[in-house]
Amino acid sequence: MKNFRFDALTLILINAIMPVMCAIFPSQKMVALTYIMASLILVVSGNIRRIFKVICVVAVFLAIYLINEYYGFSAILAAWARMMLLFMPCFMIAALLITEYKSSEVLSGLQGLGYQRYL
Fold first, then answer.
1. Phi, psi of 114, deg, nearest 5
2. Confidence of residue 2 (pLDDT cuts 50, 70, 90)
3. Nearest to residue 37, comparing CAs of 89, 73, 74?
4. How far apart are CA 24 and CA 47, in angstroms?
5. Other beta carbons within 10 Å of 92
6. Alpha-carbon dihedral of residues 47, 53, 58, 60, nearest 10 degrees?
């Protein structure tokens, strides 16, 4: 089966919209939806191994967050871990853009927005 290849502009726009949606609708359902959407993008593009790596990283940050919330070591460390958990779907799509796409493909995708001349 051939892996599907998303347009670079589509991935950039999805990556820009996901944190805005989490900020507008702050709930655990929205965070779960962004994780599911990013995971589906990775599965469709054939990067299943990357999902397992992300699961390990999310488990570490979740452990840091829960330990800090339970024992109250550092509020800053807990906030940092929480922010990393919230932005992990964006990191997943950004990693896909960095590893799978050439810079010329990303720049041609940005040409549709008119940003190519400024970059």
1. 85, 15
2. low
3. 89
4. 29
5. 25
6. 180
